[in-house]
Amino acid sequence: MPITARSTPNIALIKYWGNRNDGLRLPAADSLSMALNTPSVEIIVDDSDVLDIHSFESDGRERRMTMKHVLRFNRHLELTKQYLAELGSPEAIPASVSITIHSAIPPGIGIASSAAVFSCLAQAYAGLIETERKLSREEISVIGRLGSGSAARGAFDGYVALEAGTGDAIDSAKAVPVADDQHWLLYDIIIVPSRKEKEYGSTEGHSLARTSPLFPKRVQEIPRRQRECIDAIRTRDFEKLQRVAEEDCLDMHEVMRTSTPSLQYLTRDTRLILEEITVYRRMKRLPVLYTMDAGPTVHLFCPAEAKEDVLHFAHEQQGCTVFVAHTGKGAHVIN
Ligand code: PMV
Known about the structure:
Number of helices: 8
Bound molecules: (3R)-3-hydroxy-3-methyl-5-(phosphonooxy)pentanoic acid
Strand order of the largest sheet: 8-7-9-6-1-16
CATH class of the largest domain: Alpha Beta
Structural class: alpha+beta
């Protein structure tokens, strides 16, 4: 029986950048994100004799799968089998699968499309094997992480931490819930200056993190930031959240910039938007924070009372595409 799952991006407020084990995507440090309600991806999986993958855009056009993409899905399936074997259910998943992806998320521009895709696929696999073995949300997060580290966080609703753990066991890093999507409604007004896909994907980027002289300090600082961020979310303290999220985001981009080769995901457009939002929020005394992933896209998080002003600001940005999202659910099966 085919299984369909749905998921959305999750945007980090404490960023995951760099692994202690690249092959298993075991992160070097903790991270924390908020799940969005939109844009979404749906994935249908079913038994198949050979790995068969098709991916469609929201207008129905088929997206070309490169060899690199196919190898990534293949490796993810192999790692999922390895993990299920370690859980004592080696036969749970079929020898191979067909995967059909319908995604409304533009890839490669900093809207966490791979987090959405692999959290969705992990959930679809969990649905496919449910009669053999029922997986917990934490176990689903491990399967997501094996495809894209940040996908681990897509296994839960709302605000989610990825606990890095220690050692090299396949399940030594997993997601845990911090607060559900009803706890605190925050908007993410997403400003996309360019739809050009980045040259260096985050998989390559993570493996360069440790070439930055700033990386050890970053890893050292994260436990404190993670605690502050969790505390800010639990007490709904926006000012505190802004301070720690912006500190962490700028620090990650400095690590990227000082790695070898240097990775510069932020463009002139990104920097202009940051300058302008900083002036605008001071002028209007607006609660709004910025954060950027591995791309030029700017995420402006704000509570409901600031939404209209932030949206107005976003629409003033020439030549940019704007998405509006808010706190949402993690991956789930829809049939
Ligand atoms: O999950 P990956 O390998 O696509 O890495 C995600 C990296 C960032 O988006 C930059 C940060 C994060 O925590 O989501």
